[in-house]
Amino acid sequence: MSTQHDPINVKPLNEVLLYLENLLPTNIPTTYSIKPLFKGIAEEEKIRDGVLAFKEFLRLFLNRLKSVGHLYAKPSKIPGSLTDYPFLHNITNLLVDIGYHGRMSKNGDVLSITNIPLCCSSVDNNGHKKNPKIPLSSFFECLRFLTLCGFIFTGIDLDVKMFCISETQPLKVSYPDNPVLLTGLKILSVADIECRTERRYWNDHHLLRCDYRLVMAEKTDVLDTLKDILHPLSQDVQTFALKLHRRYVSMGLTCTESWLQDVSFSYANLNKHKKDLLSRDKYQKRIWAFSYSIRHGHSLFVRAKKTEKYKNIIGNFSPSLQEIIAGGYGCYKKFGRARCMGDCQGIRLPLDDSILDYEEDITTWLDLEMPFAD
């Protein structure tokens, strides 16, 4: 086995952009209650309109990147993931900073900014100076791209590449084509920082999901989110996946969604656990899961533990499914590679039309694993 990590080959930009596009919600309701946290920012109807406007902006944003992104987004020289494009990380976090720290004008058509923390030097608790998280050159590169998407920045010269903002000399941000977009940016940036239950990471691009559910006062049904993730698949595959979801939730399994790196919907028997568990602990107890990742696309992972207990029944499955099950799963190191490839998630079945050949066998298989759940 190699003692060195295998190199990471970053996915082509257009594949990353398609992945991000598929994370956008398919349908955002036109009516829903707003959390009290946001009601001091704008009226409820304007908030809903702003969120819709931001989703439309994201489609424009991603399309611009598809056409001219090669001029801006270059892979990291030493990539840490398959989606490691520093420009994407910078521009996502800059938008959050603009939205979160920007002060809305009375009519909502301008955001005034007197401080952009990500672009400023800071001093840590030990008195050591820390460089800006977004270097000045990258900051201007992001602003220039955002102007291609319809933003206007007043109080800064993008050609001189220098700026100084303050209470008396703020940077003003506008979006003339659809000013209510600024309300959506403000609301979703506050939600991204203050309402997420999972840890925020520099490279998670959460804002680009337009996660309106963080703004809703009502608790959302995980089924609705799952439908969003499944929407690129054929109707037959969607129907099969949703049938599995409904079947095992009705049998007492808890479905937990996670958006850290890969998107996952994991199913676990938590009836034996009296105390509330963290999402990661629920995930560790999963029997099976749906996943959407840049590496594998849409997949069904089965974390089978006791296949030896029902070998005779597996013998009646489709030969190709028997072969997949026989391959097992586990840390990728055992297959001769040093870098984790996510194979510990379970036995992977591509969630495409090929899975329809195993519909009944998969249901039987999952039923057989149920008694051995933690």
Question: Can you give a write-up of this model?
Answer:
With 374 residues, this protein is of the alpha+beta class. It folds into two domains: 13-214, no CATH class; 222-372, no CATH class. Helices cover 36% and strands 12% of the residues. The mean pLDDT is 89.
Low-confidence stretches: none
Report the span from N to C terminus.
Answer: 32 Å
Structural class: alpha+beta
Residue share in β-strands: 5-15%
**Overall morphology:** elongated
Helicity range? 25-40%
Mean pLDDT across every amino acid position: 89
SSE arrangement, N to C: HHHEEEEHEEHHHEEHEEHHEH
How many separate helices? 11
How many strands, which pairing sense, and closed or not: the largest β-sheet?
5 strands, antiparallel
What count of domains describes the coordinates?
2
Strand segment count = 11
The main sheet orders its strands as 7-8-9-10-11
> In terms of quaternary structure, what is this?
single chain
List keywords for this structure.
2 domains; four-stranded antiparallel sheet; 36% helix; 11 helices; five-stranded antiparallel sheet; 374 residues; alpha+beta
Question: Could you provide a short overview of the structure?
Answer:
It contains 11 helices and 11 strands. It has 374 residues and is of the alpha+beta class. It folds into 2 domains: 13-214, no CATH class; 222-372, no CATH class.
Describe how the helices and strands are arranged:
Layout: H1 13-22, H2 44-68, H3 86-101, E1 103-104, E2 111-113, E3 122-123, E4 129-130, H4 136-148, E5 152-154, E6 171-174, H5 181-194, H6 222-230, H7 235-250, E7 254-258, E8 263-268, H8 279-284, E9 286-293, E10 297-302, H9 311-314, H10 319-327, E11 347-350, H11 359-369
Antiparallel strand pairs: 1-2, 2-6, 3-4, 5-6, 7-8, 8-9, 9-10, 10-11
